[in-house]
Design a protein that fits this description.
single chain; mainly alpha; 6 helices; 3 strands; about 50% helix; globular
């Protein structure tokens, strides 16, 4: 199955990169609310949301869940908070890891998502941030 799909990998990467580019452009409309990540040469499996305010993050996550969009913690949160690492690292010395732990999550990005899904996300963000 995997070998069969390799013939389509470039096509799949183009779709994912297109989705990610569109996502970045949508996020740039909300610089006071979101931290936007841009990178070239990726094949993003995820669309990362990094909120400046953790309460706003929680409310937006509830909104997307209410319309059937699943989300996941970004990198499983701050791993330095895990007991097995606490003896080696002080989590407070890594504020960016805590920011991602409390203010970030991602939704999936795959080659089966297209204009309809991106338009839905754009509409939800516009209504949530009050710019519709």
């Amino acid at each position: 199955l995997g070998l069969c799909q390799l013939r389509r990998i470039d096509y799949f990467v183009r779709i994912r990169n297109g989705n990610y580019s569109r996502f970045v452009e949508i996020c740039k409309r909300y610089p006071k609310e979101l931290i936007t990540l841009e990178a070239e040469g990726i094949s993003s499996f995820a669309l990362p949301f990094i909120f400046r305010n953790s309460l706003q993050k929680q409310e937006f996550q509830k909104l997307i869940k209410s319309v059937g969009i699943e989300s996941r913690p970004l990198i499983s949160g701050n791993l330095l908070r895990q007991p097995f690492l606490q003896r080696y690292y002080n989590a407070r010395e890594y504020p960016n890891a805590d920011l991602l732990h409390t203010n970030a999550f991602y939704v999936g990005n795959n080659q089966f998502d297209g204009e309809e899904q991106m338009q839905c996300l754009e509409n939800l963000m516009s209504k949530f941030f009050g710019k519709d």
